Amino acid sequence: MSDGKMEYMGPVRVALIAASPQVRASLQTIVEADPALALLGSAADAETLAADLAGSVPDVVVADIEPEAGDALKTLFDPGRAPPALVLLLDDPDSDGFLDELPAEATAILSRDVTPAEIVAAIEAAAAGLCVLSPDILARLLAGRKPLRQTASGGPFEALSLREIEVLAMLADGLGNKEIARQLDISDNTVKSHLSSIFGKLGATNRTEAVMLGMRHGYIMV
């Protein structure tokens, strides 16, 4: 992985989003029980959390929401800086539209029935810039439960360029377009062009799927 994420000298600052008060309380208990984590805020939705944080930026956001509600999470992300890592809890995916519905900022995807220890591990991994999948979700993706897209011509897979591999690695680290542009000393439009090419070559439709396919093709090591 690239070193786009900072090294955390203190507890990882965590914010929680869950519509269910019971789920929210359970997540809060998990975070507060671990000395390596610090709870920054908790709310039923992204808009309320953003207001409660009052400008404070968490290192990781754990969200128990439906994927289609992901656009609301953008209220937490300052366009001028890399967004917090997003740990998304959701039902075990079983539809072709699963990846298409995911927020682009998701860096960890877990089933809702994972253990507290697995949630803590995902938070720490996401804060370190790693992409995390539960074993069940990874198995579904690699086993082809969601068929991989072919190139438009149906021909053989087209290899990524060195620059595209570099951009993809930063994508896996959870960096936004502006941060990628700053680190590579290129324009935002050039980053968008690289992402478009990466998506086209991998057959991906969003950032999370591109990272998953990059892992499968050996471009990203975990």
Architecture overview:
The chain is globular and about 45 Å long. A six-stranded parallel beta sheet has the order 2-1-3-4-5-6, with helices on both faces. It contains nine helices and six strands, in the order E-H-E-H-E-E-H-E-H-E-H-H-H-H-H. The chain folds into two domains: 12-142, Rossmann fold; 162-216, Winged helix-like DNA-binding domain superfamily/Winged helix DNA-binding domain (Arc Repressor Mutant, subunit A), CATH 1.10.10.10. Residues 1-8 and 144-155 have low confidence and may be disordered. It has 222 residues and is of the alpha/beta class. Helix 3 (98-101) links the parallel strand 4 (85-90) and strand 5.
Q: How would you concisely characterize the structure shown here?
A:
The chain is α/β, with parallel strands linked by helices. The protein has helices spanning 21-32, 46-53, 98-101, 116-127, 135-142, 162-172, 177-184, 188-202, 207-216, and strands at 12-18, 37-43, 60-64, 85-90, 106-111, 132-133.
Helix-strand blueprint:
Elements: E1 12-18, H1 21-32, E2 37-43, H2 46-53, E3 60-64, E4 85-90, H3 98-101, E5 106-111, H4 116-127, E6 132-133, H5 135-142, H6 162-172, H7 177-184, H8 188-202, H9 207-216
Parallel strand pairs: 1-2, 1-3, 3-4, 4-5, 5-6
Helix pairs in contact: 6-8, 6-9, 7-8
